[in-house]
Amino acid sequence: MPGITADDDGETDESVLEDADPNRSGDPNPDGSDSAPTDDGGIQIDMISADRIEGMRTMEKIRLILDGVHDGNIVILERGLDPDEESKLIEVTMSEINPDGFTGIEIETYPGEKKNDSGLLGRLIGNDDSSKLTVIGPANRLETLHKDETLISTLVTRT
Fold it and tell me: Superkingdom, according to UniProt (predicted)?
């Protein structure tokens, strides 16, 4: 075992010091623990695939998003919410705003691709407009600087 040892006459022998570096390779973290690294004050971004939320009900999607935002995370959805889901997200968000805590959300979405049958009949047969990438974050940490059909530019701040 690496370290300082005492030989038969009680004197210490430092010549057996081997790898005393706590950052030695093979340890998953610099502190040698197997646990996840602790928060260093950075900003967490949760990128959620369309496959993950595809089978979820509306309230499950909203809870997934708002739980992340309540934790101060930025949530990025590969495919945005449909208009009814987005309205419900805003409604639930408004009911959770607290002057001493949760300040609400900032949400930006690329416009959906327009399909030929974008009316009611088109939506009934599955040709609805699907939103592209959606960025959602705490209103006090995420500020939209610029948005157009090809770019969403945001400023993310630490609290």
Answer: Archaea
- Backbone phi, psi, residue 89, to 5°: -60, -45
Task: Report the alpha-carbon distance of residue 96 to residue 30 in Å, rounded.
Answer: 39
- Which of 51, 49, 44, 38 is CA-nearest to residue 68? 44
DSSP code at position 100: T
Question: Tell me, what amino acid is at 2?
Answer: P
Highest averaged pLDDT of the listed ranges 47-61, 125-139, 144-158: 47-61
Residue appearing with tokens 């690294």: 37
**How many whole angstroms separate alpha carbon 116 and alpha carbon 127?**
8
Give the count of beta carbons closer than 10 Å to the beta carbon of residue 45: 13
Measured distance between the N- and C-terminal CA atoms of the chain, rounded to whole angstroms: 45
Per-state percent for the chain, helix, strand, coil, to nearest 5? 25, 20, 55
Residues 43 and 72: their CA atoms lie apart, in Å, by 8
Is 141 within 8 Å of 157 (Cβ atoms)?
yes
